[in-house]
Design a protein that fits this description.
By secondary structure, this protein is an alpha+beta fold. It has 2 helices and 5 strands; from the N terminus they run αβββαββ. Strand 1 and strand 2 form a beta hairpin. It is globular.
């Protein structure tokens, strides 16, 4: 999608530290990490936000969680625990309009989130 930062990362038009890629997903380190491990897992399909997810995207979204699980293992944060976050819409703080799962770990998390 024209003008989308994450589509640009997908097309290698802007650099990112990519940690995983397959035919339908990409994962890369967040440019402004909020935890020792902070990785974004995105679909290659441009979906703006959770509100726009269709039934046909079910397996794609499930795959993203599976990918995050594998990365958490590789990052060594599976045992202690980690957090997956999807911000959806303005009040959640979503700032990039290409759906993404935040994989956060490597420190104790607090609840509720801010
Ligand atoms: P959101 O606020 O939409 O849930 O999360 C967007 C995330 O993308 C933020 O954590 C932000 O730091 C990250 N981000 C924004 N632009 C870039 C970029 O160009 N490269 C990388 N690696 N991360 C980005
Ligand atoms: Zn996009």
């Amino acid at each position: 999608m024209e003008g989308c930062m994450f589509c640009k990362i997908l097309k290698r038009e802007i650099p990112a530290t990519i940690v995983y890629e397959d035919e339908i997903s990409l994962a890369f380190r967040d440019i402004s990490p909020k935890a020792p491990t902070h990785i974004l897992v995105i679909p290659k399909k441009h979906i703006r936000t959770v509100v726009e997810v269709k039934e046909e995207d079910n397996s794609l979204l499930g795959h993203l969680i599976y990918v995050a699980n594998g990365i958490a293992k590789k990052e060594g944060i599976s045992e202690k625990g980690f957090r997956l976050v999807i911000n959806c819409g303005l009040e959640s703080g979503q700032s990039v309009w290409h759906i993404h799962i935040h994989l956060l770990g490597g420190r104790k998390m607090t609840w509720p989130p801010g």
